[in-house]
Write a sequence for this structure.
C-alpha cells in the first residue's frame, strides 16, 4: 500500500473543514425553496396510525410552538382502549390500545369558511386553512361548523383557534412542530403537488389503504390516514372519556 | 356490560355558543312571536284583540330591545361587532342576520311608537309619571294609520327575515346532526309564537282587573293551536327519525337516543306541551299558568338544542358534560339578560303603564 503524503491528508482535511459550512448551509437551505415558495404547493399531511405510539409529543410540541392556552388543544392523540376478540388475540389479553392523532383537516371544501360572517377564516393558496385574528369576532360559528371538533375559542385571545399546519414554520421552510417531534414518524407532511416528495410517494404507494375522517361530509380533508379503523372514522361509538382538561386544571 | 371501546384520552370541547346565545334566540323569538300577536288588533283591527295586541307589542318591544345585547355579549370580541358591517360575507347566514336585525328593530320601534303615540299623549295629559318625557315622545299624539301600517309592514319583513335566518343559520350546521334537520326552523318558529302568546298572556294577567276574560280565552285558543302544531312537528320529527325515511332525522335521533338526559328532556318537552294544551282547552281562563308554561317550553327548547346539542362530541365517544358556570360565561349571562329585560320593562311601563296599554277600549291605532 502506497504511503500517504501528509500534505495530501492535510489538504483533504482542510477541504473537508472548509466544506462543513457549505454542507451545513446546503442542508438548511435545500428544503427551503421546496417548502417556502407560494402558489405551487398544496400542503397536506399523512398520518400513519400504525406508527403512532400515543406519546403525545406532538400535542406538547404544538402547545409549546403555538402558545396554546391550558386546557385547549390544536392537536391531540385520541386514545382508546379496544376490546379484543378471540380471533384478534386468542385469550391472552382482553384489550388493546388504539391511537388516533387528530388535528384540523385543512379541507379542500372547508365548512368553516362559508359560515364565517366576517370572512376571517380563509384558505391560503397553498391549501392551509387559516384565521385572520385581526378580523375574527369570536362568534364561534366556525367552531360549530367544523365536523372534526378541530376548532375552539382561544381564551387568551378570544378568537377562533385551530391548527395552522404551523404556517409560520412552513413559510420559513420548516416542518410543523408536531411532525418535527413525532417519535414514531407517524406524521408525514409535504406537498401534494410534488410527485417526488415523500408525502405523494407514500400516498400513491398506499392508495387503497388511505382514508380520511368523515368522508360522507364531503369536506375532502387534506389530512390522510393509513391504518384508520372504520370504527374511528366518524363519531366513535363507545364510552366517553372521563378526563376533561379544564376541569382537571380548574 | 363493558363497552367494546373506551375513550381514555381525548379533548372535551367546551360549549362555544354560551347561554347568552340561548337568551338571544329565546328573546328574539319571543319578540317576533309577540309582534305577530300584535297584528290582529293593531293592523287588522280584529274585534276584541285591541288590548291584547297592544300588550303583545310591548312584549315584542321589550324582548326585541334586549335580544341584540345578548347576541353581542355572546361574541367573544363584542367590540368588533362593526366587522359584521365592514366585512359583509354573503355566504354566511349570520352575516345576513346582522342586517336583518336592524331592519326588524327599526320597523318594530317605529310601529310601536306610532301605535303608542296617542296613549303616550293621554298619559302626559293625565299627568302620569314622566309626563314631560311622554309628551315629548308622543310628539303631538296623532294617530297615523297609514304610517302605522307601513311601519308594521317593515317590521313584518324584518320579523320574517329574522325568523328565517335564526332557523336556517342553525339548521345549516351539518356537523351537528341534531341541528341539521329541516324541521328545526319550524320548531323554532312554532315555539316562538307560543312564547309570544305566553308573554302577552302574562302581561294580560297583571292588568288591574286580571285582564279581559274574553281576550284571555281567545289567546288560550291561539296558544292551544300552537301546542297542537308543536306536537305535530315533534311527531313528524320522531317518525322521520325512527322510520329511517329521512337519513338526517335518523342521524339526529341516533345521536341523542342513547342518552338518558336526552330522553328526560324529550319526555319533559312533550309532557309540558300536552299539559299546556290540555289546560288551554279545559281552563282557558288560566292565562298566567299557560302563559308561563309556554314561555318555559320556548326557553327550554332552545336551551336543549343549543347547550345540549353542544354536549354531543363530533368525533369523540359518549357526551361532554356541561355545568353552568356562575360567571359571565354562564349564569350571569342569563341573569344579566333578565336584568336588562326587567329594566326596559320598568322604563317602558313607567312611561306608559301596563293598564293604559292593555285597556281594551282604548284606540291605539
Amino acid at each position: 500500500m502506497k504511503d500517504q503524503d501528509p500534505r495530501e491528508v492535510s489538504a483533504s482535511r482542510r477541504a473537508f473543514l472548509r466544506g462543513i459550512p457549505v454542507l451545513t448551509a446546503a442542508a438548511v437551505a435545500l428544503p427551503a425553496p421546496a417548502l417556502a415558495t407560494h402558489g405551487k404547493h398544496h400542503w397536506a399531511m399523512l398520518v400513519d396510525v400504525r406508527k403512532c405510539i400515543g406519546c403525545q409529543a406532538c400535542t406538547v410540541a404544538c402547545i409549546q410552538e403555538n402558545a396554546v392556552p391550558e386546557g385547549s388543544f390544536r392537536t391531540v392523540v385520541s386514545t382508546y382502549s379496544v376490546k379484543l376478540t378471540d380471533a384478534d388475540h386468542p385469550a391472552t389479553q382482553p384489550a388493546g390500545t388504539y391511537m388516533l392523532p387528530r388535528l384540523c383537516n385543512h379541507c379542500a371544501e372547508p365548512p368553516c369558511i362559508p359560515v364565517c360572517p366576517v370572512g376571517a377564516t380563509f384558505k391560503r393558496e397553498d391549501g392551509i386553512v387559516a384565521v385572520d385574528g385581526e378580523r375574527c369576532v369570536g362568534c364561534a360559528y366556525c367552531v360549530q361548523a367544523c365536523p372534526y371538533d378541530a376548532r375552539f375559542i382561544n381564551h387568551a385571545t378570544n378568537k377562533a383557534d385551530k391548527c395552522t399546519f404551523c404556517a409560520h414554520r412552513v413559510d420559513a421552510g420548516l416542518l410543523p412542530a408536531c411532525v418535527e417531534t413525532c417519535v414514531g414518524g407517524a406524521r408525514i407532511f409535504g406537498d401534494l403537488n410534488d410527485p417526488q416528495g415523500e408525502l405523494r410517494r407514500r400516498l400513491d404507494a398506499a392508495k387503497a389503504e388511505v382514508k380520511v375522517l368523515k368522508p360522507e361530509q364531503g369536506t375532502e380533508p387534506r389530512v390522510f390516514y393509513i391504518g384508520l379503523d372504520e370504527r374511528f372514522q366518524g363519531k366513535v361509538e363507545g364510552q366517553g372519556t372521563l378526563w376533561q382538561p379544564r376541569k382537571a386544571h380548574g | 356490560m363493558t363497552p367494546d371501546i373506551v375513550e381514555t384520552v381525548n379533548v372535551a370541547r367546551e360549549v362555544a355558543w354560551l347561554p347568552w346565545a340561548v337568551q338571544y334566540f329565546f328573546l328574539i323569538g319571543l319578540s317576533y312571536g309577540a309582534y305577530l300577536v300584535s297584528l290582529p288588533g293593531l293592523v287588522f283591527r280584529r274585534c276584541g284583540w285591541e288590548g291584547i295586541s297592544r300588550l303583545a307589542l310591548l312584549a315584542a318591544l321589550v324582548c326585541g330591545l334586549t335580544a341584540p345585547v345578548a347576541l353581542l355579549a355572546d361574541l367573544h370580541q363584542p367590540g368588533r361587532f362593526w366587522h359584521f358591517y365592514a366585512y359583509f360575507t354573503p355566504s354566511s347566514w349570520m352575516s345576513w342576520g346582522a342586517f336583518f336585525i336592524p331592519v326588524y328593530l327599526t320597523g318594530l320601534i317605529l310601529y310601536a311608537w306610532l301605535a303608542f303615540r296617542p296613549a303616550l299623549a293621554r298619559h302626559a295629559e293625565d299627568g302620569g309619571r314622566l309626563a314631560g318625557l311622554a309628551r315629548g315622545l308622543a310628539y303631538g299624539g296623532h294617530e297615523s294609520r297609514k304610517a302605522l301600517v307601513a311601519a308594521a309592514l317593515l317590521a313584518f319583513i324584518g320579523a320574517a327575515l329574522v325568523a328565517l335566518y335564526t332557523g336556517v343559520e342553525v339548521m345549516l350546521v351539518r356537523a351537528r346532526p341534531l341541528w341539521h334537520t329541516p324541521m328545526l326552523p319550524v320548531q323554532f318558529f312554532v315555539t316562538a309564537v307560543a312564547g309570544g302568546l305566553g308573554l302577552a298572556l302574562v302581561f294580560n294577567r297583571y292588568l288591574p282587573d286580571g285582564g279581559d276574560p274574553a281576550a284571555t280565552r281567545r289567546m288560550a285558543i291561539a296558544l292551544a293551536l300552537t301546542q297542537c302544531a308543536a306536537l305535530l312537528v315533534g311527531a313528524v320529527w320522531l317518525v322521520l327519525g325512527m322510520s329511517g325515511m329521512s337519513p338526517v332525522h335518523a342521524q339526529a335521533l341516533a345521536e341523542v337516543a342513547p342518552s338518558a338526559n336526552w330522553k328526560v328532556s324529550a319526555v319533559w318537552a312533550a309532557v309540558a306541551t300536552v299539559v299546556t294544551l290540555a289546560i288551554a282547552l279545559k281552563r282557558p281562563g288560566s292565562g298566567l299558568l299557560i302563559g308561563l308554561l309556554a314561555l318555559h317550553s320556548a326557553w327550554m327548547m332552545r336551551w336543549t338544542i343549543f347547550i345540549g346539542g353542544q354536549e354531543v362530541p363530533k368525533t369523540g365517544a359518549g357526551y361532554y358534560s356541561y355545568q353552568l358556570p356562575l360567571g359571565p360565561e354562564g349564569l350571569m349571562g342569563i341573569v344579566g339578560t333578565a336584568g336588562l329585560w326587567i329594566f326596559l320593562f320598568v322604563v317602558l311601563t313607567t312611561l306608559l303603564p301596563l293598564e293604559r296599554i292593555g285597556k281594551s277600549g282604548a284606540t291605539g291605532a
